[in-house]
Design goal:
There is one protein chain. The chain has about 675 residues and is of the alpha+beta class. The chain folds into 4 domains: about 40-145, PAS domain (Beta-Lactamase, 2-Layer Sandwich); about 165-265, Beta-Lactamase; about 275-435 and about 445-515, Histidine kinase-like ATPase, C-terminal domain (Heat Shock Protein 90); about 540-655, 3-Layer(aba) Sandwich (Rossmann fold), CATH 3.40.50. About 45% of the residues lie in helices and about 25% in strands. It contains 19 helices and 22 strands. Strands 2-1-5-4-3 form a 5-stranded antiparallel β-sheet. A 5-stranded antiparallel β-sheet has the order 7-6-10-9-8. Strand 1 and strand 2 (about 55) form a beta hairpin. It is elongated. Bound molecules: adenosine-5'-diphosphate and magnesium ion (MG). Magnesium ion binds near residues 410, 413, 414, 480 and 484.
């Protein structure tokens, strides 16, 4: 086989092969281009650089700018107003002239519907059929930019609120417990510099004022709800303690767990609240004294009546000394009058006593009746008092009796004022209301309803609307302060009750108060008054600086069968109590005496006589409770004024009680 022909044959077929390969490659490349061209999500345009007309556009371009292939091909970009800013186009053309290509050129295009699209353009000049053409890839980055901007803004908003928040905010890395970021309020709250805080733990900063808070907080953070509004005492760098509400939220940052913490300082708020409570208390006290002042005239009048009765009947007893029956009947009247005087004094004292509010089950009818009897003394005879449902009512409320007393007194006084100068009826009513049916919305528990109504002047709607305003009064200087009803409102509210007022000018006013009924035990009844308990020859020592009282006690107790030694001087009494050889079974001493108080006396007696019972008699029993008495070595309390009944009862009880343990 001639090698030449072979070579020739081979050469020919090589060329053909090469051409075929090239054609195939070209076809493949064109196909690849076509596929890329049509499938690309980006827009692609091919533009004749001589005429500047579109030769081709893909679907991606249609998606971005809204023009179909038919609408775009053969047209100029400027004809379609695709360039929002023609300057962008000029810059692009220059760039291409200079480099033959363009990369990530940002320009704003205008969609067919007029909306703007921000695009990134990349392109290259290629020859197509001998003509220089520009293939341009258009990527719509409008959304991407918008998202980026939103993110940036959100971040900025967050960091701004972080920095300017009046609440202290800090970010802690959970594992190391170190502060990663803190705001200015945090630094102010803790009194530290940023450098002192960042990179340190709460414990290193001495953050917790109470050790146990740290544990409780950690536990709360581990629960599902996390710690929200957790009250915490923190310590500032200068040692000052503050109360904050702690709220924490976990989040992952850079792959590690963090806790974002907000601390809301409530120290001032709490202080203000307790100041308000104190003021409220002072207001109530002041108002009480004011109400008492109003009543003083009436009380004095009442007292005069009582004294008149006592004086008259005792004089008559002297005159009728020969007739025992007459004497007994006169003395009965004297006794009755003195009981009335005792009650009056007791009421005034319990009403004016400066006492912290104290809740206990209170028989509401009793309180109302007491208030009525105190009011009665200041009422003109033109006003008639009616009582409805008070008799025998045993309803209890959990309340401070002095405050309830104040409520009734204020309402009664207002009604009295409203009926001034005319005849009228003042009605006090009491009723029990059963609980609402439970399926009702806002069903209320069983309650007691107290009604105070008058047939007085009534109130106009304008006055009624401002009734509970502190210092609102329609009365003249020295007559009203406008505090009464605001105090009533405050007291009723604090007892969980409601108050409603109905009034009509010229007809009268009716106030209705509802308080939750206390369903617990009835208070044990007062010990029944029976015959007088007798003595069995026990030796008593009675001490009171008032000779009359000593005399009374000496006589009474002797008559009951005791051996009584009385003295008016506590020092003298001490002289009678020789340590180790005391013949007395009981000491009864007054509280307020010159030289030495009953308390001091008791303390001195206790030194030498650890087991001798001591009974203290006092006109101000409210100041002492049993624990305080026990602390100073006193075994019992006797309330003045003394009656035979109370004295005989208390003495017997003390003597019969088991002997006190020596302390
Ligand atoms: P004050 O009695 O010191 O004026 P209050 O707070 O007790 O203050 O009452 C405020 C005002 O409400 C009274 O001045 C009076 O005008 C009106 N008011 C209260 N109770 C009655 C009532 N029962 N009848 C008519 N007006 C009343
Ligand atoms: Mg009033």
């Amino acid at each position: 086989m001639p090698p030449t022909s072979e070579t020739a044959v081979t050469g020919e077929s090589d060329l053909a092969l090469r051409v075929r390969q090239l054609e195939k490659a070209l076809a493949e490349s064109e196909e690849r281009f076509e596929k890329t061209f049509s499938a690309s999500a980006d827009g692609i345009t091919v533009t004749d650089l001589v005429t500047s007309r579109y030769i081709n556009i893909n679907e991606g371009f249609t998606r971005i700018f809204g023009y179909t292939r038919e609408e775009a091909v053969g047209r100029l970009a400027v004809e379609l107003s695709i360039w929002a800013y023609p300057k962008d186009r000029d810059s692009l053309v220059q760039e291409i002239k200079r480099c033959g290509r363009v990369r990530d050129f940002i320009a704003v295009g205008r969609n067919k519907d007029g909306s703007f699209r921000t695009c990134s353009l990349s392109g290259e000049v290629v020859e197509i059929s001998g003509n220089p053409s520009l293939v341009l890839v258009v990527r719509d980055i409008t959304e991407q930019l918008r998202t980026e901007r939103a993110l940036r803004e959100a971040l900025e908003r967050f960091s701004k609120s972080f920095m300017v928040s009046p609440d202290a905010i800090c970010l802690c890395e959970v594992e190391s417990r170190r502060f990663v970021e803190v705001n200015d309020s945090f630094l102010r709250l803790m009194g530290v510099s940023r450098g002192e805080a960042l990179g340190h733990t709460a414990r290193e900063l001495g953050f917790y004022a109470r050790r146990e808070d740290e544990e409780h907080l950690a536990r709360a953070l581990r629960t599902e709800e996390g710690a929200r509004g957790f009250e915490l005492r923190i310590r500032r760098s200068n040692g000052e303690e503050r109360t904050v509400l702690f709220s924490g939220e976990f989040m992952t940052l850079d792959g590690s767990e963090h806790c974002l913490i907000v601390l809301h300082d409530i120290t001032e708020l709490q202080r203000a609240a307790s100041e308000r409570a104190l003021l409220q208390e002072q207001l109530q006290q002041a108002q009480k004294l004011e109400a008492l002042g109003t009543l003083a005239g009436g009380i004095a009048h009442d007292f005069n009546n009582i004294l008149t009765a006592i004086m008259a009947y005792s004089e008559m007893a002297v005159m009728d000394a020969e007739d025992p029956d007459e004497v007994r009947s006169h003395l009965d009247e004297v006794h009755k009058a003195s009981l009335r005087a005792r009650d009056l004094v007791r009421q005034i004292l319990s009403f004016s006593r400066m006492k912290k509010a104290e809740r206990r089950p209170v028989c509401i009818a009793e309180v109302v009746r007491e208030a009525i009897s105190l009011l009665r003394s200041s009422l003109p005879s033109t006003i008639h008092i009616l009582e409805e449902g008070l008799e025998g009512d045993q309803a209890l409320v959990m309340a401070d009796p002095t405050q309830l007393h104040q409520v009734i007194m204020n309402l009664g006084t207002n009604s009295t004022h409203a009926m001034r100068g005319r005849a009228g009826v003042l009605t006090f009513g009491l009723a029990q209301l059963p609980a609402d049916a439970p399926e009702l919305d806002g069903a209320r528990p069983a309650r007691v309803c107290i009604m105070v109504s008058d047939t007085g002047s009534g109130m106009s709607p304008e006055v009624l609307a401002r009734l509970f305003e502190p210092f609102f009064t329609t009365k003249g200087q020295g007559e009203g302060t406008g505090l009464g009803m605001s105090v009533v409102h405050g007291i009723v509210q604090s007892h969980g009750g409601t108050i409603a007022v109905e009034s009509q000018v010229g007809v009268g006013t009716s106030v209705r108060i509802e308080l939750p009924l206390h369903t617990g035990e009835l208070r044990s009844a007062e010990p029944a008054v029976g015959g007088l308990p007798q003595g069995r020859g026990e030796a008593l020592l009675f001490i009171d600086d008032e000779p009359q009282i000593c005399q009374f006690a000496q006589k009474m107790l002797t008559r009951l069968g005791y051996h009584v030694t009385s003295c008016t001087n506590p020092l003298e009494a001490l002289g009678l109590l020789v340590p180790g050889q005391c013949g007395f079974a009981l000491v009864v001493t007054d509280l307020t005496m010159p030289n030495m108080t009953g308390i001091e006396l008791a303390r001195r007696i206790r030194g030498g006589h650890p087991r001798l019972p001591i009974l203290l008699s006092s006109g101000l029993p409210g100041m002492w409770n049993n624990e305080r008495l026990a602390e100073v070595g006193i075994n019992g309390l006797l309330t003045k004024p003394l009656s035979i009944q109370s004295l005989a009862g208390a003495v017997r009880r003390m003597l019969d009680a088991p002997l006190p343990e020596p302390s």
